[in-house]
Amino acid sequence: MKKSQKYYETYIEELEERIIDLSLKLKATNNLLADKATKHNKLISALTHNLKNPIGIAYSFSEMMSENAENYPKDKLEKHLEIVKESSQYAISLLNTFVTYHQVNSANYLYNFKLEEYTELINNVINNNMLLLQNKHITVVKNLPNNAILINIDSEKITLVLKQLLRNAIRFSEPNSKITISVTTSSTAITTQIIDEGIGISKNDLANVFNDFFVVNTYDVDKKKCIGLGLSIAQNIIKKHNGTLSIHSTINQGSTVTITLPICK
Fold it and tell me: What are the φ/ψ torsions at residue 90 (nearest 5 degrees)?
């Protein structure tokens, strides 16, 4: 009888402990779901807020032109059509970037890792952005190893990161400036630096540059409106490669973006 009673007491204690453990896990899961829901709502709110302005501008000017189409002065028509075009382009760009952001942050986003020649990938990114560089008369200085560098990456996604970072450097650089792209290797990692002579970022803003929809400047030096998702996308991709992405910057002197990717042997 005593053995039976002892058994039940032990069983009840173990059951209580399991219930407590499951309750704690359930609470943690609920908190995680609540956090995700809050983040999702904030993202949708930010997306809506950022879309309202360009869509509203495009609609207002379109309505104004359609109401007085026959008597609209040509010079004013051209100017207002350009405003509609730029507002529409920004809205489309924002939606496309948000789709990429959503894909990158999805648990089902697949990565296709395989050995790639990294120097060739860097050169392709530079060549594909040569027109943007030439339009602003920006000189690119390349400090790349002469030997081939093989690294296990998803080339499509790393190309997306490099394109984003190079275009940031171009956007926030003045005409006739310089962008330096350096690649160095060690026994364990490949380090890429993109160094510009642009407008720079303050220390206070540096702490937030990887936050969703955060923009240091509403417009770049070419007066193009910024979105604020590119660095968040880039950081997520680099983390999936077990690498790091960091930025050092000085106001009115420029920024240095550093990517470190591990070499798997």
Answer: -65, -45
Angle between helices 155-171 and 118-128 (to 10 degrees): 40
Task: Classify domain 7-104 at the CATH topology level.
Answer: Helix Hairpins (1.10.287)
Decide yes or no: CATH 2.40.100.20 for domain 114-262: no
pLDDT digits (tens, 9 = 90+) for 58-116: 888 888 888 877 788 888 888 888 888 888 888 888 888 888 888 888 878 889 999 99
Rounded-to-integer distance, Cα 243 and Cα 233, Å:
14
- Kindly report the backbone phi and psi dihedral angles of residue 32, in degrees, each rounded to the nearest multiple of 5, phi listed first: -65, -45
Half-sphere exposure of 80 (CA within 13 A, CB side): 18
- Chain-centroid distance of CA 77 in Å reads 36
| Contact criterion met (CB below 8 Å) for 103 and 233 | no
According to DSSP, the β-strands at 244-250 and 178-185 are unpaired
Q: At 248, give phi and psi (nearest 5°).
A: -120, 135
Query: CB burial class (10 A; 0-12, 13-18, 19+) of residue 185?
Result: middle
Reduced to 3 states, what is the DSSP secondary structure of residue 120? helix
Global pTM? 0.75
The answer to whether the beta carbons of residues 260 and 247 sit under 8 Å apart is no
